[in-house]
Write a structure and sequence with these properties.
CATH architecture of one domain in chain B: Orthogonal Bundle
CATH topology of one domain in chain B: Tetracycline Repressor, domain 2
Structural class of chain B: mainly alpha
Helix content of chain B: over 70%
Largest sheet of chain A: none
Oligomer: heterodimer
Largest interface: A-B, 40 and 41 residues
Largest sheet of chain B: none
Number of strands of chain A: 0
Number of helices of chain B: 9
Chain lengths: ~200, ~200
């Protein structure tokens, strides 16, 4: 009997390429149709492979969604986090919002996928465990932003902790509204920076 | 001679409203494609043909639900003539929104799903434009209150409008996604405007 393991190409290299193709295709399907309506067989076909091959990599839709989320978060979050090293809170806000705008223009699937997570979560609680990083990251980002503002004195005049959530609400609102209305601009960013200077 | 049912006039308006309420919930829960006229008709207690009698098509029904829902929300959050500060106008807006959400829970679900439906169904893109118009009018009005009062006089009208849009939508979306407000988020918004009002001039 021929040893089947010695036939065919090395698994490693091709396997990664195929996996990536699935993830990128799945990302745009989840973004376009949502978790519920996206179909594994359509995704496989669109990626140019068979549904069987897809299931070899991802046993079910939840696994696939999970992988797409991880890949997306790993690409987007580091680009945002770097602005926390800015010398001021104003620059951190300016930089992070500009970066988010660029990503949403150049790779809209990435930002749109992430902004759909909360609404998918509402309908499909089983996703929660897999997207925990998003909540953690969001909390971390805003609390670091505030820490920076306290350090530089930009938030000195705000003695009430209640003021602090304001920035999170405004920035998250800008993100959600940008995606929902398909109309993103940086006017909010300008307003927030002026507000900080005014405080 | 037996009476043949109740007067048609009053019944008709009431039935129409019941259909709209049932449809809003059905569209919000199952999306436009997944929504079933049969399910809507059943929950109102009429035949599907009766639904079509009032609304001609699923598309018309969706559009009418949108009109009714938008009018209710944006009318209730329009700043009253008395509000002279953004602080007052925002406090009223937040209170009215909370009341509306309690009274009519599927309102926010329906409106929040509109952009997704419009992506899937280009025939609804003009509804998105209408939503944008309703919002713009409200946010601009709030912005001018804020600039007049001095709370936001360091911003241009556009900057103030966009800032208010982000704050209101941020508050609305977080509450919608979590099905509850983030504790003190409303207070935080009001506290900021109070601070800006107090430190003005």
């Amino acid at each position: 009997m021929v040893d089947k393991r010695s036939s065919g190409r090395p698994m490693g290299k091709d396997s990664t390429k195929v996996r990536e193709a699935y993830i990128n295709t799945a990302r745009s399907h989840f973004t376009e149709y949502g978790y519920s309506q996206a179909s594994m067989s359509t995704i496989a076909k669109d990626a140019g492979y068979t549904p069987t091959a897809l299931r070899h990599h991802f046993s079910n839709k939840l696994e696939l969604y999970s992988a797409v989320f991880a890949s997306t978060a790993n690409e987007v979050y580091p680009q945002i986090v770097q602005h926390l090293y800015s010398p001021s809170m104003a620059e951190a806000i300016e930089g992070s919002m500009t970066t988010m705008l660029h990503i949403s223009i150049n790779s809209p699937d990435y930002t749109y996928f992430l902004s759909r997570v909360p609404s998918e979560l509402r309908q499909f609680p089983e996703i929660r465990e897999r997207v925990e990083i998003r909540e953690n990251f969001t909390d971390f980002f805003y609390s670091s932003l505030i820490t920076l503002g306290r350090k530089t004195g930009e938030l000195e005049s705000l003695t009430d902790e209640a003021h602090i959530k304001f920035f999170r609400i405004a920035m998250q609102g800008w993100i959600y509204e940008g995606h929902y209305s398909q109309n993103v601009n940086l006017t909010t960013q300008v307003a927030l920076v002026k507000l900080l200077q005014r405080l | 001679m037996s009476t043949r049912g109740r007067p048609k006039g009053g019944d008709s308006a009431q039935t129409k409203k019941k259909i709209l309420d049932a449809a809003r919930l059905e569209f919000a829960t199952n999306g436009y494609d997944g929504a079933s006229i049969m399910a809507i008709a059943t929950s109102v207690g009429i035949a599907p043909s009766a639904v079509y009698h009032y609304f001609q098509s699923k598309e018309n029904l969706y559009t009418d639900v949108f009109e009714q829902t938008s009018n209710a929300i944006w009318d209730s959050v329009t700043p009253s003539e008395e509000a002279t500060t953004l602080f007052d106008a925002m406090r009223q807006l937040l209170d009215d929104s909370r009341l509306l959400a309690d009274k009519l829970p599927s309102y926010s679900d329906f409106l929040a799903s509109l952009p997704i439906e419009a992506r899937l169904h280009p025939e609804f893109s003009d509804l998105l434009e209408k939503r944008a118009d309703y919002q713009d009018r409200t946010f601009r009005k709030l912005a001018s209150i804020g600039i007049e009062s001095g709370e936001l006089d360091f911003l241009t009208e556009d900057e103030a409008t966009e800032l208010i849009r982000s704050i209101v939508m941020g508050w609305f979306f977080e509450r919608h996604f979590r099905q509850a407000e983030i504790p003190n988020s409303g207070d935080s918004i009001l506290a900021m405007f109070k601070h800006l009002l107090n430190t003005h001039q």
